[in-house]
Write a structure and sequence with these properties.
- By secondary structure, this protein is mostly beta strands.
- Helix content is 8%, strand content 37%.
- Among the domains are: 103 residues, Sandwich (Immunoglobulin-like), CATH 2.60.40; 117 residues, Immunoglobulin-like (Sandwich); 73 residues, Immunoglobulin-like (Sandwich), CATH 2.60.40; 111 residues, Beta Complex (Ferric Hydroxamate Uptake Protein, Chain A, domain 1).
Length: 819
């Protein structure tokens, strides 16, 4: 199925004479070698998410399966092992974040939508850390509609300015040239951002009509024009009411090359045209590549204004093919086309009829290649109640439309799966219109030609990591800086240390961290200087994008969700109904700051020495620590009983060191000072021995003793606005996201008192399984309890280990309704 051609040479099948032989020192040969090296050195990844349904209400789980592939052949990626998923709200902020482990290019999990969110259009994006080295616009992203049941759905009103049309023109190959007939793509969109079907024409300065155009699917179309030198042109749009609007026409070049490709037959028909004064017998090179893999290259002596040739489509894989025409190693024209061999995985479902008392729905799944040979693949399966979850298959962002099309184009694509759903000649032509008007690719020849050195800031993340940069106060990187990572979450103890590299960067990798752990990171120079800046790697920027919203058939889904929560989860618009709780005694709240006027930076302590211990004491402060929990006296020093293992701690000698003593906000150089300070002067003592409490103190690795004297009762230092630390950073709610399985109830349908069947029958998502594997015979079985749905809609997506993709939707009536 999947073709493995790397470089194919062609001899012309018609008038164009191509030479397939180039010397090793030929500039184009050297350029192709650069491309090969670039692709190997900087492989790129793509991500696709399969969601159980297209919209949700707050409080629901979004069940998802991730497919992570390398761009070159869409094969499962063996690079990144960590996937980041963000739920973005309409203010372009992260509302929820997931971190999943990638295994053999696949990951699965769920995202619980906070019920505190407001209704609206949200985005869900997914990426690997390595993908951040490239354009963030190639992150996976799709829009989802979320509704809060406490809010009323407001019907959308049609704006008066929706009739305002933006008209754009895109010459094939890049430029229009006087005297050369060429195709011109046209795209019309209204104020909603969606395409508009319009008609119009092109006129010259004498108002002579020289061409007509008409857009079709998604407001895109194509027409031909032969611009005459010396003439100026304008576009005229015919409005719905019969009036007209005029638009400027693109600039027309005096001379140049036009690259035209026709995709309507079994062969690609290529035409290169130019002005006669450029015909000097010079060499032109044509290169066709897909995701950095060269599939075709040729050289011709340009000795005629028009050359044509035919190239078999079978030479290329399914996907976007980028053709570039070079003159003297300079790109002069470019065209992208989409080739679809319809070689995706064939997925078939058949229902097994069962006895009604078994209350089960059983489906047989088979997967084969285009030649009906069995395929052992990995698939994700969603089953929804079709009456509750209505959606248009053309609007979906599928594994086919995403990995073969959207992931290589920049910008909004209206109805991406339209081009893969029930394909016909019209849709193939309309897909070519799309590529004429939206042919922005992830690959740029200029980077290779200009020897542009791509810097890799983010390494492939093979394990969960925390990384960043250490600089001096003038932002100069510091090498060999000492960095320590400490957990501040009770019950999760972790202390790690490392040093920065020659570029000032550091990384804590191979982390195995559960969900929602908090950390503090501290840094010092190699000489122990705290006047350094610690800069954690920031989250990817969130691009501000216009929300393109269609009116969805959402109301039936909302009504069902309200019925489900009102009847079973005790949910109402007023809130969640809780059981009555009798309060017998008022809870005593502990003060945040344990000692009045303490200089504690974080307002908490692991142990507060009772005031009775040092009341009326006549000895020294040192004597107050005998028998205090968490500390012990050893060799005349106060040390904590919990061992510290970080080698970055000051005076590390392989054993416990004396605790840091802070007296009225000032650290003591030595504990010896406690030996001559009278205990009678003490107002309070706080003991900090956990990482949670000591992490904020620069030298608190071995524990901290806070002593507040009676004469030191002033406002805490934390309230001083001049107090600022650059070498400390906090990390909140970090770690692998918690996992759980989609709940499938086991119940007796004859038991009328069991409410669980009713809860199940009200579900909109009946079944979700992110890992259905077909065997060597291409077979698997799907089994789930029946519900009272009138009909089911099954959606299956997946792939095999060779990058062959498949998607299937299947609707069938429920003849085995639960009792």
């Amino acid at each position: 199925m999947k073709k493995r051609i790397l470089i194919c040479f062609l001899s012309a099948l018609s008038l164009m004479s191509f030479s397939a032989f180039m010397s090793d020192d030929d500039p184009i040969t050297l350029l192709l070698k650069k491309l090969e090296e670039f692709t190997k050195k900087f492989p790129q990844e793509k991500v696709h998410l399969h969601l159980d349904k297209p919209y949700y209400v707050m409080g629901e789980d979004i069940w998802l399966k991730a497919y992570v592939v390398t761009a070159e052949k869409n094969e499962p990626s063996n690079l990144s092992k960590i996937l980041h998923i963000d739920l973005l709200d309409f203010d372009n902020k992260v509302a929820k974040k997931l971190i999943l482990n990638i295994d053999s290019g696949k990951a699965s999990g769920y995202l619980t939508i906070p019920d505190s969110l407001a209704s609206g259009s949200y985005r869900i994006r997914a990426y690997t850390k390595y993908m951040r080295n490239f354009d963030n616009d190639f992150f996976f992203e799709r829009k989802i509609n979320l509704q809060n049941l406490t809010e009323t759905i407001k019907p959308k009103t049609t704006k008066n300015n929706e009739s305002i049309i933006d008209l754009q023109f895109f010459p094939e190959g890049g430029n229009m040239i006087y005297g050369i007939r060429s195709k011109i793509g046209v795209k019309a969109v209204d104020e909603t951002g969606f395409g508009k079907n319009v008609t119009g024409y092109i006129i010259d300065e004498t108002k002579q009509k020289v061409a007509v155009f008409e857009t079709e699917h998604a407001g895109m179309g194509v027409f031909a024009l032969s611009p005459v030198k010396g003439k100026n042109y304008k576009a005229v749009l015919i409005n719905v009411d019969g009036t007209t609007s005029s638009f400027n026409f693109p600039k027309i070049e005096e001379q140049g090359y036009n690259l035209s490709i026709n995709t309507s037959s079994e062969n690609l028909t290529i035409k290169i045209a130019s002005n006669s004064d450029l015909v000097k017998g010079q060499k032109l090179n044509l290169i066709a590549q897909c995701n950095g893999i060269t599939y075709f290259t040729s050289t011709t002596n340009f000795d005629s204004p028009i050359f044509t040739a035919a190239i078999a489509k079978s030479r290329f894989p399914t996907g976007i093919i980028q053709f570039t025409l070079f003159e003297n190693l300079k790109p002069v024209a470019e065209r992208v086309v989409f080739i679809n061999h319809k070689d995706q995985i064939k997925i078939n479902l058949t229902e097994i009829k069962t006895k009604i008392q078994n209350n089960q729905s059983i489906l047989n799944l088979t997967s084969t290649d285009i030649n009906n040979n069995p395929i052992d693949g990995n698939f994700s399966v969603s089953v929804v109640d079709e009456s509750k979850v209505l959606f248009n298959e053309d609007d979906e962002n599928t594994i086919l439309s995403n990995l073969l099309l959207s992931s290589d184009l920049k910008g909004f694509i209206e109805q991406p799966n339209y081009y893969f759903n029930n394909i016909n000649d019209d849709k193939e032509r309309q897909l070519d219109n799309l590529l004429l008007t939206q042919g922005w690719r992830r690959f740029n020849w200029g980077d290779l030609i200009n020897n542009k050195d791509r810097s890799i800031t983010y390494n492939v993340e093979r394990s969960l990591e925390i990384s960043g940069l250490i600089t001096d106060l003038r932002n100069n990187p510091i090498a060999n800086a000492k960095v320590v990572l400490m957990s501040t979450t009770n019950g999760f103890d972790l202390i790690l240390d490392t040093v920065s590299n020659s570029m000032g960067r550091f990384s804590f990798d191979r982390l195995d961290i559960p969900d929602s752990i908090n950390f503090i990171v501290q840094a010092k120079s190699g000489k122990g200087d705290k006047n350094v800046k610690l800069i954690l790697d920031e989250e990817p920027t969130i691009s501000v994008k216009k929300h393109f919203d269609r009116q969805l058939a959402f109301q039936s889904y909302i009504d069902n969700a309200k019925e489900q929560y009102n009847g079973l989860s005790q949910f109402s618009p007023e809130g969640i109904k809780l059981k009555t709780v009798n309060i017998n005694k008022k809870k005593e709240l502990k003060p945040i700051i344990n000692i009045p006027n303490s200089k504690s930076r974080n307002g908490s302590a692991d142990y507060v020495v009772p005031k009775e211990r040092f009341k009326d004491k006549s000895g020294t402060m040192f004597e107050l620590f005998f028998g205090v929990p968490g500390v012990k006296i050893e060799e005349g020093k106060i040390i904590r009983t919990i061992k510290n293992t970080t080698s970055i701690a000051p005076n590390f000698k392989g054993k416990q060191q004396p605790m840091l003593v802070i007296l009225d906000g000032s650290p003591l150089a030595s504990q010896e000072s406690l030996g001559w300070m009278p205990a009678s002067t003490v107002e309070g003592i706080e003991i900090l021995i956990s990482n949670y409490n000591t992490a904020i103190y620069d030298d608190g690795y071995w524990g901290v003793i806070l002593i507040t004297t009676k004469s030191g009762a002033v406002e805490p230092i934390i309230n001083d606005p001049s107090f600022k630390t650059y070498n400390i950073a906090e990390i909140s709610n970090y770690g692998f996201s918690a996992s759980k399985q989609f709940y499938i109830p086991k119940f007796d349908p004859k038991n009328k008192d069991n409410k669980e069947p009713n809860a199940y029958t009200l579900r909109s998502t009946i079944y979700w399984n992110p890992n259905v594997n077909t065997d060597v015979n291409g077979k698997a079985t799907i089994n789930f309890p029946s519900s009272n749905a009138k009909s089911y809609k099954v959606t299956i997506e997946g792939m095999d280990s060779f990058g062959n993709l498949g998607r299937k939707t299947y609707t069938y009536p429920n003849n085995n309704k639960s009792l």
